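Kindly go through the following sequence and its backbone structure tokens. Advise at your convenience whether the structure tokens fit the sequence:

___
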Amino acid sequence: MALKITAPSLRRVLNIWPPFLFAGVRVREVSDDFRHARVELRQHWYTRNFVGTHFGGSLFAMTDPFWMIMTMQSLGGDYIVWDRAAEIEFVKPGRGTVAAEFQLDDDVLERIRSATAGGEKYLHWFETDVIDRDGDVVARIRKQVYVRRKRPRGATA
């Protein structure tokens, strides 16, 4: 069952969630309809790796929950939504403040609804770029989300 939460509450909770808090990740925006989010990672002594750039785990962590949460909240309680797979490509060293934006479009939601209408599972790949203050891509993240309509109570597979 999808958690009933408002977008402002989700933003506040994620900003004190230990994996984000201790990695230096800040959720700057979650739209009221859960269709857009913006996240930042500022560089601090505790977010640097051995060579002085952003720690790769923090770059990945800043993007981790958003596609699943946004899809789950947008589709509603009749769907099961899980993260299934992920990939990260480090494009250039990340320094300073980096950001990621997520935009869940109507066509993606319609594709998911159509593909799962008969109870089938659907796997969708989402892509997110982490960019620096100059707009250069620091990392590319791909997340695969599993979606299936819930079976009615008493229905057998």
In short: The first helix runs from residue 7 to 16.
